[in-house]
Amino acid sequence: MITYTNAQFRSILFGLGYLAQDFAAMGNGFPVSKDNSQLTTIKTVQAIKNFQADYGLQVDGVVGPKTMAKAEEVIKILQYELNVVVKADLPKDHPFYGPRTVAAVKKFAAQYSSEDEGMITGVATLEIRKNLDRVAKQLI
């Protein structure tokens, strides 16, 4: 199992749409975060709780081993489906929400989403993930 840094886990929360877009961070590679501070702000704890609730985990707002393992699983599935659908060539052993995942999500959204191109951020919202899952299952 991967042990994510706070910045890596924050990137997952941003990337999956659990943390609201920080417009100040847009020029700094959003949704990828370099902020390695503690995951203790009210918004961050709520984002962690929402993630935990969505995936049937104990909802405590703490990023423990089970929450990290579930995040790793979710990212691996996301990256696998992006590889199937948009030929993203994301590595199977690198379950992080980094620049290559952002680029692949943008590519998918541009091809399969009804979003205006200017609104495509590289965030794999629940709507985008459901659509990706549907398209991937048709191709597998």
Could you tell me the number of beta strands? 0
Q: What is the total number of structural domains?
A: 1
Number of helices: 5
Look at the structure and give the mean pLDDT.
90
> Strand content of the residues, in percent?
under 5%
* N-to-C CA distance: 26 Å
**Structural Rg:** 14 Å
Pfam families: PG_binding_1 (PF01471)
Domain Peptidoglycan binding-like: 43-70
InterPro entries: Peptidoglycan-bd-like (IPR002477), PGBD-like_sf (IPR036365), PGBDSf (IPR036366)
Protein name: Peptidoglycan-binding domain 1
Textual characterization of the structure:
The two termini are 26 Å apart. 34% of the residues are buried. It contains five helices and no strands. With 140 residues, the protein is an all-alpha fold. This is Peptidoglycan-binding domain 1. It comes from Anabaenopsis circularis NIES-21. Pfam families: PG_binding_1.
Topology, element by element:
Layout: H1 6-15, H2 42-54, H3 65-86, H4 99-112, H5 126-139
Defining traits:
Peptidoglycan-binding domain 1, globular, 5 helices, mainly alpha, 52% helix, PGBD-like_sf, 140 residues
What's a quick, concise take on this entry?
The chain has 140 residues and is mostly helical.
